[in-house]
Amino acid sequence: MSRVALVTGGSRGIGAAIAKALKAAGYKVAANYAGNDEAAAKFTEETGIPTYKWSVADYDACAAGIAKVEADLGPVEVLVNNAGITRDAPFHKMTKDQWDQVIGTNLTGIFNMTHPLWPGLRERKFGRVINISSINGQKGQFGQANYSAAKAGDIGFTKALAQEGARNNITVNVICPGYVATEMVMAVPEKVREAIISTIPVGRLGEPEDIARAVVFLASDDAGFITGSTLSANGGQYLS
Ligand code: CAA
């Protein structure tokens, strides 16, 4: 029987590529999204993957959303914590609200999603939790004190939870994408973006599928011995 996978932020960008790749690999996939109804409807129409709307920043909404997905598709065995936002500003201009929004979605969001699922994964003695962090959680980025802090937190979360999940055959890993050609990166001012691309040894932005293939591998039974690991997929831009 095919496993159920839930991808947050799964209707656009990297998340959409992950959802599609998991479906192609035989999973029953649900894609969560927070705001863009039009993009979600288009995604479902094109892929046949159902979309579910809630904010990962809201614990109760996550618990209710997960319950709905499980009622529709069965117990979630693969969770991909991909949802993320940016509110870039140099620190002297960064507001408390910009800090709270990014920490709430990009860091607390992975707690909010993983915590309600955790008892079921432990009981069934199988799970794959794959967190999507960022190169900027590894190296820091000018203008992203909030984002870099959250994404670095995602890596620490992964390493702690991997140790707790291991005895129940739950692996927890984190992928750190570099700059990938999505709306988020295209929103960076063009000059800044060009400067960033010039520092990527492979000479191009990543494609969402570059990340999706790594997720499919980490979700597979073949990856059962890999847990607590940080996988960089950044075209050689930062070697940790
Ligand atoms: N290093 C050093 N100095 C920098 C700098 C950098 N990387 N970027 C900007 N500065 C300097 C500017 O040159 C400027 O200096 P002067 O005042 O001497 O000219 C100063 O900082 C202020 O710059 P701005 O006036 O442009 O400030 P701003 O408020 O308009 O915007 C910014 C600053 C928001 C940080 C903007 O530069 C920016 O968007 N940078 C890109 C940040 C980035 O890489 N975000 C990643 C988004 S994609 C993503 O997050 C996905 C992922 O995981 C990879």
UniProtKB/TrEMBL annotation:
SMART domains associated with the record: PKS_KR
EC number of the protein: 1.1.1.36
Molecular function via GO: acetoacetyl-CoA reductase activity
Boundaries of every Ketoreductase domain copy: 3-183
InterPro entries, alphabetized: Acetoacetyl-CoA_reductase, KR_dom, NAD(P)-bd_dom_sf, Sc_DH/Rdtase_CS, SDR, SDR_fam
UniProt-listed PROSITE patterns: ADH_SHORT
Keywords: Oxidoreductase
One Pfam family cited in the UniProt record for this chain: adh_short_C2
The protein's enzyme class: oxidoreductase
CDD domains documented for this protein: BKR_SDR_c
Family, as annotated: Belongs to the short-chain dehydrogenases/reductases (SDR) family.
Protein known as: Acetoacetyl-CoA reductase
